[in-house]
Amino acid sequence: MLKQVLQETEDKMEKTISTTQSELAKVRTGRANPALLDTIRVEYYGSKVPLKQVANIGVPEPRMITVQPWDRNVLADIEKAILKADIGITPNNDGHVIRLPIPALTEDRRKDLVRLIHQLGEEGKVAVRNVRRDAIDQLKQAQKDHQISEDEEYNGGIDVQELTDNYVQKIDGLIKAKEEELMEV
User: Fold this and answer.
1) Residue 111 vs residues 39, 82, 117, 152, 160: alpha-carbon distances, Å
2) Is pLDDT of 185 > 70?
3) Quick check: 26 pLDDT over 90?
4) CATH number of the domain that 65 lies in?
């Protein structure tokens, strides 16, 4: 019972880390990153599909993303989808390729993004702590139902807290790395 609770807790915390990572990847750093386009869906023959399924996305230089569709007929739809996504980048369409120039960030915008990163990190930490709370509740219930002893509940609580501390440190590391990436000029 105890190992099962710990394993479930670790799995949930791992998912929280990956969610936090993907949220942080969406924050624009002034450097070209194809992850900026991950959420964009394009109208393609009557259905909405992810952009990366209809085009090749490349980063030929640090401040430029290129989107080269496999079917040239969908070029205008891709351009519309990028504009509609409101990612703060105006696409340049030359008839073959869409170029997305990434503008340099101002100091104020960098500070705003750092605040956003810290907020996203805090949300990740709260999610990890919620997983901890649920795990401790499960341990208490198991002890109350006489499935585990009081000592096992106590030691399980210590193990859950160690997991929590470990994952909170991982989130702090992600935030620090993203902040350094943002403040780099």
Assistant:
1) 24, 25, 10, 46, 35
2) no
3) no
4) 3.30.1360.40
Q: Using alpha carbons, select from 182, 184, 178 the residue that is nearest to residue 22.
A: 178
Give the domain-ending residue among 76, 101, 126. 101
Q: Which two tokens stand for residue 169?
A: 């440190």
Claim to verify: residue 46 and residue 76 sit in the same structural domain = yes
d(CA 135, CA 159): 10
Whole-number average pLDDT of the chain:
89
Residues 60 and 96 in one domain: yes
131 and 77 inside one domain: no
Report the predicted TM-score, pTM, of the whole model to 2 decimal places.
0.69
Strands laid side by side in the 92-93 sheet: 55-61, 64-69, 98-101, 92-93
Query: Considering its fold, how many domains does the chain have in total?
Result: 2
Same domain, 96 and 111: no
Domain around 70: 34-101
Q: Rounded to an integer, what distance in angstroms lies between the CA atom of residue 21 and that of residue 7?
A: 21
Neighbouring-strand partners of residue 41: 50
What is the pLDDT averaged over residues 106-120?
87
Specify the pLDDT at position 37: 83
Residues paired with residue 50 on neighbouring β-strands, in sequence order: 41
